[in-house]
Amino acid sequence: MNDGKMNSNSLEAEYMDITNKNAWPIVYQKIGRECQSYPYTCLEAKKPQNKQLNRYRDVNPYDHSRVILKRCERDYINANLVKMDRANRKYILTQGPLGSTVGHFWLMVWEQNSRAILMLNKIIEKNEIKCHWYWPHGIGDQHKMVLNDVKLTVEQISEEDCSYYSTRVFRIFDMESSESREVVQFHYTTWPDFGVPSSPVAFLEFLKKVRSSGALEADVGPAIVHCSAGIGRSGTFCLVDSCLVIIEKEGFGLVNIQQILLEMRKDRMGLIQTPDQLRFSYQAIIEGAKRFNPEWKEEQKMEESIYSAVAEDVEEEAPPLPPPRAESLTKAPARPLPAIPTSASLGNLNFSPTQESSSSDEGPPTPPARDCPTSASSADDEDDEPITSPVESKETTETLRRRRTRELAERVTAMKRRARDAERWHALKRSLYKPLTITFGFLLAGIVIYSYVKH
Questions:
Q1: Which residues pair with 115 in a beta bridge?
Q2: Confidence band (pLDDT; 50, 70, 90) for 394?
Q3: 378 exposure class (CB count in 10 Å sphere: 0-12, 13-18, 19+)
Q4: What is 97-110 written as a DSSP string?
Q5: Of 164, 370, 431, 452, which one has the greatest count of Cβ atoms within 10 A?
Q6: pTM metric for this prediction
Q7: Is 227 annotated as catalytic?
Q8: Angle between the N-to-C axes of helices 24-35 and 2-20, in degrees from 0 to 180, rounded to the nearest 10
Q9: Share of the chain above pLDDT 90, in %
Q10: Candidate list 131, 227, 238, 243, residue with the active-site label
């Protein structure tokens, strides 16, 4: 990493130059224009029998890199294999499963020998369903999912709540070969759609957890990475991870973040959806390169970054309603980008103290916390708060998890009920339209005839 230390100023200088000129929308649009010249096609995605399998009409997999299902009536799924050879990384980026594609999703996990699923979205965001609940609703054999169309069963065998993300372990059983395999799901629950996490350190701790599982290594199948569309948050994760690996291998001086993003976009369209996500990627890469360097802890162990808190148990507010996903590739955002908080390890990459954030997406920093805290409180409140035993803390976490699950189920049920009521109302209007039209026609004809006879 010596070369990285010597050349780190170049990447930081690029970051500061873009920031000082407020040029993130311009840089982002430039990347989008370069991608418009790509000659890749999406013919399979646009076939009539496959259109209904896409969550969004304008987010389709390229033909040359799409994942092909082998043991299925249809070989199509909205997913691409994204390769970054310099980092020795492979990812499968895909959309959040639809109700009709849950079997396809698990078949892809099985056939690709993937050992991890990285879920970067919540099921419901801003009262919209962003992803179908595709895993069992409980632990144990009694909650096992049986997917007869693809000859697989999925059983959840454990779950761990780490405040702003959860981990779940599933056992997939192949009914044809009688083989089974365990897969870990890392579920990041506080990353808003079209937005960024409130803290790069929280994100980097999540990345470190994923890396420590071995799920990103070359000797296993590619990790499945998805959000709702499989391009924004998913692209941000893969860009940061790949760039950090390249920095570890080659140093700061040989990393061109924009070129690496352009390279990744050759395998899946539209990776990273906003200038804010691009800026956050720079910030996380610079911060992560220092934190992942073993020498950094020795040099900085007495210093404390305000990013050191990783508790993100408060639900982040999503940004204003976004433009259509295709337009997000070329148009600038309608509002200024938020300011980046100060970080000790980022050195001079800070805004001046007088500059305030213009966005509510990024809240104030939280105090230091453990890797998997169940609650967070300020130092001023420590004397006032009672000490909670581990048993009570665990019970509180379980109660909170059950309440969130129940509330989620109630919200989904309410949305389905509203949809059914709306459909009944439209059906009633359609059934009344023809009789009312005929009756009105007869009345109008009668009036005309009466007027003619009278005169």
A1: none
A2: low
A3: exposed
A4: PPGGGHHHHHHHHH
A5: 164
A6: 0.68
A7: yes
A8: 100
A9: 54
A10: 227
